[in-house]
């Protein structure tokens, strides 16, 4: 049995404790969880926690406690259990240029915040941020920038998919002039755990949300099942065109027709040509090789596309199926053997995937039927 087969055949635990960084006293009822998942634990009277069983892999572990700074620790599970001690520092007041907004302006800013955090889909409209009053706004470099923050985790009810989402904002930015927006934070999913017909509805909706999503794509990619799962991927190269000047004949008038300075050259590629082994220390990590950008076509209409068609006119989408673009913003782009994107800030999306927001995201440990 190889090291890889041995590691996958086993499961491990992350154990440890959470302490006050100043007094080293144990913190009871602190939350410790794997970022973007449903897996987590609450510390006991001694500040102890245990999370597992877990497959070998790379995990981002977050520890949080009211009044203290959240702490993220990246851990690799390979062949043994891991023990971690978190020492949390008390929060200090950050010097921000807080915007004191009139009620009407604040409502407008909150709408911008919710639309760009949650999205525009039916799931987004049904979501409720239970502690929305905690969201504050800070001044940006100019009047078009909207910068949001909160000193505590936002609690978001998503009745469409059956999750309570705990979201800690690290960064939120929106530019009213350019439409550019991004957000980043720590996320914990909590299953609402209802039974009967409601649970069956959530199961169907989660499956529908998964189909054709970025999560579905990355899972299919590392499993080498792109065709089987309905994806076609094209590697796109941008090629510059050199304009050739010509001298006009004497007495003639030249009308120069403008030509594009660049053309896109696309070719269909396979998973094997896109993935190269980046590391293999008990479990595999792959680097995604994208030249200029990737065009990803999914053969069926997705829930996300159908939702967005009800809200606005979509351009650039085929009549049947979806079209998305994956553009590198930094390198390397890394995925583990399970299809978890380890460098989410290294990619940005166009096409239908640009509308994927928090309300239409599933935990990393979600497993479709």
Describe the fold and architecture:
The protein has three domains: 3-88, Sandwich (Immunoglobulin-like), CATH 2.60.40; 103-191; 212-245 and 260-357, no CATH class. Helix content is 18%, strand content 36%. The protein is built from eight helices and 21 strands. The longest helix has 16 residues, at 103-118. 28% of the residues are buried. Residues 1-8 and 251-257 have low confidence and may be disordered.
Short descriptors:
369 residues, alpha+beta, 8 helices, 36% strand, globular
Strand-helix topology:
Layout lengths: L2 H7 L2 E9 L10 E4 L5 E3 L5 E7 L2 E8 L6 E7 L4 E7 L14 H16 L3 H5 L1 E2 L6 E3 L6 E5 L4 E5 L4 E13 L5 E11 L5 H14 L3 H9 L3 H4 L1 E10 L21 E8 L1 H4 E6 L3 E5 L4 E6 L4 H9 L10 E7 L5 E3 L10 E5 L18
Parallel strand pairs: 1-7
Antiparallel strand pairs: 1-4, 2-3, 2-5, 5-6, 8-11, 9-10, 10-12, 11-12, 12-13, 14-15, 14-18, 16-17, 17-20, 18-19, 19-21
Concise account of the structure shown:
By secondary structure, the chain is an alpha+beta fold. The protein is built from 8 helices and 21 strands. The radius of gyration is 24 Å and the shape is globular.
The best one-word shape is globular
Give start-end ranges of low-pLDDT stretches. Answer: 1-8, 251-257
Proportion of strand residues: 35-45%
Radius of gyration: 24 Å
- Would you count the extended β strands for me? 21
Q: Secondary-structure element order, as H and E?
A: HEEEEEEEHHEEEEEEHHHEEHEEEHEEE
Helix content: 10-25%
User: What's the end-to-end separation, in Å?
Assistant: 29 Å
| Structural class by secondary-structure content | alpha+beta
Q: Total domains, how many?
A: 3
The whole-number mean of residue pLDDT values reads 90
List the total number of helices. Answer: 8
Task: Report the major sheet.
Answer: 6 strands, antiparallel
